[in-house]
Write a structure and sequence with these properties.
This protein has 309 residues and is mainly alpha-helical. 63% of the residues lie in helices and 0% in strands. Helix 8 (133-159) runs antiparallel to helix 9 (180-198) and helix 10 (210-241) runs antiparallel to helix 11. This is ENTH domain-containing protein. It comes from Panagrolaimus sp. ES5.
């Protein structure tokens, strides 16, 4: 099982302001759940402590295991994690979001299904940790990360699947085989999720602690999968373009132009990933189609719109 613990090995810089361990608040919260007999609650508290480091692998693995256990209440698990996102401490909130993201990526599908069915969103638009200067700086990343996780959940609600988990590729890729009408409804949803991810906009100089590094790795992995789906969908769109009617062709042309505009933002994000040591082999080639392609599409569209559509 691939988890963020392994991925975090890409980062080797020391973590400033690292706490020596759990705070008294962390220990009291975990003890409260232990006294109540809630191993699940205790583990969630330990995964989302105020300690300035990524959630520990053993805690994440336990939560992933719980999603596959029929006697574990997914609503209880999700609600405990959501409750941690309402904490005033940026580290706790950030680690709660990371834990939710990790479980969505690697846990049982029913966790994502529950979040989507409840239309879960994280009310972090105005989140600001004023307790110290680092809190001010990191609160912006917390807000953007929360927005992306909310969009990921909303996308699941609309499509009933996770773009990061569906089949990709020429032979049986979900978006590669999708019919034109459904494809043109699905691509804007995928674009919105990618836009929310790309708004994270972090530089390598801001990746200074285990918490933000951890979220960046998860976002990088999502982006790779989202872009692969996006690419599949656009290829499918182009293959169908010359058989479309006027209305479909106009819509498809606008979707293709939107794809080209997003390439630069994707490239910028991947450039940061490469600069912090992520293996070049994991980073896709963003070779652009020749300019003659968009010229041919535009000429065909002009022909359709100039004649009888």
């Amino acid at each position: 099982m691939q988890t963020i613990e392994k991925a975090s090995s890409f980062f080797h810089q020391p973590m400033p302001f690292t706490a020596s361990g759990q705070t008294i608040t962390d220990r009291l919260t975990a003890a409260r759940h232990a006294l109540a007999g809630s191993q699940l609650g205790k583990t969630i508290c330990k995964a989302t402590t105020e300690e300035l480091s990524a959630p520990k692998k053993k805690h994440l693995d336990y939560l992933l295991h719980c999603t596959n256990e029929p006697n574990v209440s997914i609503p209880s698990m999700a609600n405990l994690l959501i409750e941690r996102t309402q904490n005033p401490n940026w580290v706790v909130v950030y680690k709660a979001l990371i834990t939710i993201h990790n479980v969505m990526c690697y846990g049982n599908e029913r966790f994502s299904q529950y979040l989507a069915s409840c239309n879960t969103t994280f009310n972090l638009t105005n989140f600001l940790d004023k307790s110290n200067p680092q809190g001010y700086d990191m609160s912006n990343h917390v807000r953007r990360y929360g927005k992306y996780i909310s969009e990921k959940i909303y996308t699941y609600r609309l499509c009933a699947f996770d773009f990061c988990k569906i089949k990709r590729g020429r032979e049986d890729g979900t978006l590669r085989q999708m019919h034109a009408d459904k494809l043109m409804k699905t691509l804007p949803i995928l674009q919105n999720q990618m836009d929310a991810l790309l708004e994270f906009q972090v530089t390598n100089s801001e990746l200074t602690n285990g918490v933000i590094n951890c979220s960046f790795i998860l976002l990088f992995r999502d982006l790779i999968r989202l872009f692969a789906c996006y690419n599949d969908g656009v290829i499918n769109l182009l293959e169908k373009f010359f058989d479309m009617n006027k209305k479909q062709a106009r819509e498809a042309f606008e979707l293709y132009k939107s794809f080209l505009l997003r390439l630069d933002k994707v490239a910028a994000f991947l450039s940061v990933a490469e600069s912090v040591g992520i293996d070049r082999g994991e980073i896709p080639d963003l070779t652009r189609a020749p300019a003659s392609l968009i010229e041919a599409l535009e000429a065909h569209l002009h022909h359709l719109e100039g004649g009888k559509g």
